[in-house]
Amino acid sequence: MSEKCVFVKVWNVRRGELMIAACDCGLIGKRLKEGKLALDVSEEFYGGELMTREEAADVLRIATIANIVGAEAVKCGIEAGIVHEEGVVMIGGVPHAQFVCL
Predict the structure, then answer these.
(1) 22 closest CA partner among 96, 88, 92
(2) Which of 22, 74, 18, 16 is nearest to 48 (CA)?
(3) Which of 2, 58, 68, 99 could pair with 52 as two cysteines, CB 3.0-4.6 Å apart?
(4) pLDDT tens sequence across 13-50
(5) What is the residue extent of each domain of the chain?
(6) Fold of 6-93
């Protein structure tokens, strides 16, 4: 069984839309900076249920909007088929990806 290493939080944005926030467990509470970019990995936004990568990928597949931070979490998005490696940016040396289904 895989180790639980990704926090996943589900937000009901509007009827029929689910925003998923996912991050590596070690990033909660950190502030990432890269040039003009800054990202606060707050517990309020990202601190949901602790999951394995496989569980996180399953949840990400149902998202209509996602915000994903950290090597493990981004790998979940790639494994779920919702993040392309070329769409990943680095903020403070940490991978970050977002997507929206239209």
Answers:
(1) 96
(2) 22
(3) 2
(4) 888 899 999 999 999 999 999 999 999 999 999 999 99
(5) 6-93
(6) 3.30.1860
